[in-house]
Specification:
By secondary structure, this protein is an alpha/beta fold. The protein has helices spanning about 1-20, 100-105; strands spanning about 20-30, 40, 50, 55-65, 65-75, 75-85, 90, 95. A hairpin with a 5-residue loop joins strand 2 (about 40) and strand 3 (about 50).
Length: about 120
């Protein structure tokens, strides 16, 4: 009886893990350097990751399905990518982020001309 129960619980555990996958990747800047501290967020879930000093991120235990993955950091242009997660597999999504020149210069609007009198 105990052996049967142990086998049953083992099978349930394997099935539970097999229904999820992993997303991993690398985030670099346009000059090829690791983009540390970038936020990588999986839309429609509570799952996210912060890129480490080597430019890598991992999001574990993602239910199988298709998602939008967003990479963002102040001063860099936000990028989005569609990713399909397959149970028991790892999906790789890499990003190369470029500088957001508007954020760097602080400019957004033309200076208003004085009204003619």
């Amino acid at each position: 009886m105990l052996k049967s129960l142990t086998l049953f619980l083992s099978i349930l555990t394997v099935q539970a893990f097999a229904q999820t996958g992993t997303i991993r990747g690398t985030v670099t800047t346009s000059d090829g350097k690791p983009a540390e501290f970038v936020n990588v967020v999986l839309a429609g879930t509570n799952k996210a990751s912060i890129v480490n000093e080597a430019g890598n991120y991992t999001i574990n235990k993602v239910p199988a399905g298709t998602y939008t993955l967003t990479a963002s950091f102040t001063g860099l242009l936000t990028q989005k990518s569609t990713v399909t997660v397959t149970a028991g597999e790892t999906s790789v999504v890499n990003f190369t982020l470029t500088e957001d020149n508007l954020a760097i210069t602080g400019g957004c609007c033309k200076q208003q001309q004085p009204a003619n009198k």
